[in-house]
Amino acid sequence: MAEPNVLQPLGLRSRLPLGVQVAAGIGGLLCLIALTVAVAMLLVLGLRSDQAQLQDHSVPYASAVAAAALGAKGIANDERGYLMTSDRQFVVQLESSIPKTRVAFAAAWVAADGHAQRSAIAGARSGFERWIAVVRREIARYAAGDTEDAVAVAMGSGRAMRKSYEDSLARAQALADNALRSDQDSVASASSRSVTILLACLLAALVIGIGVALWVMRTILGPVYALLRLFGDLPQSSTPGHEAR
């Protein structure tokens, strides 16, 4: 008569080899850790993209538009100051402000993102240049002694051109403010979302990792414990009707 297989009661015949089970458990845990790291990297890259949009376009565009508006306003003040006082110092300040304002317009054009921003700043810059040409004619006429005509031009066509470019500049400023606010909200939202997703992934990895570790320990120690009991290395638990003598 064939001897019974002592491992059959332990249910080990149908299982994979122990080494394969342990390797599968540890491999699954490592895959889970790798997946968590990959998710974290994707979240960081997405956050960097939002920050790059904010730093490379929205902030420089808004700053350049604000600088152009400030420079143009200073030129308008110097224009009025000269027409009211005949002080040539206002003309010197005006001429020194024109190149700086042009640089600000150019910087806004470079930083502009999309057709709307480029169109707004292009319209404001072309209107500014037309207005500067009128201002210089006013100053030339005023310096030549034709003060009444110079003031009339300043209050008529010059004022209309200034209002036109100021409207275009106001649209550019509104677009800059909206883009800046939108990108800031996007960065804040992406940051909060990334932290939440990363914490959830880490928590899931921790829970599943603990489960895998317990399963591996049970897979290794369970058969060992059963074999030790089978060969009598561990004391048998007392059964009903059997009393220690």
How is this structure best described in words?
This protein is mostly helical and 245 residues long. Helices cover 83% and strands 0% of the residues. It has five helices and no strands. Helix 1 runs parallel beside helix 3, helix 2 runs antiparallel to helix 3 and helix 3 runs antiparallel to helix 5. The two termini are 36 Å apart. The N terminus and C terminus are likely disordered.
Features:
about 240 residues, mainly alpha, about 85% helix, disordered N terminus, disordered C terminus
Rg calc: 40 Å
- What class do helices, strands and sheet pairing give? mainly alpha
Residue-averaged pLDDT = 77
Number of helices: 5
Number of strands: 0
Order of helices and strands: HHHHH
Shape: rod-shaped
Helix content: over 70%
Low-confidence stretches: 1-14, 238-245
Which percent band covers the strand fraction?
Answer: under 5%
Secondary-structure blueprint of this entry?
Elements (H helix, E strand, L loop, with lengths): L17 H68 L2 H24 L3 H29 L3 H9 L1 H74 L15
Helix pairs in contact: 1-2, 1-3, 1-5, 2-3, 3-4, 3-5, 4-5
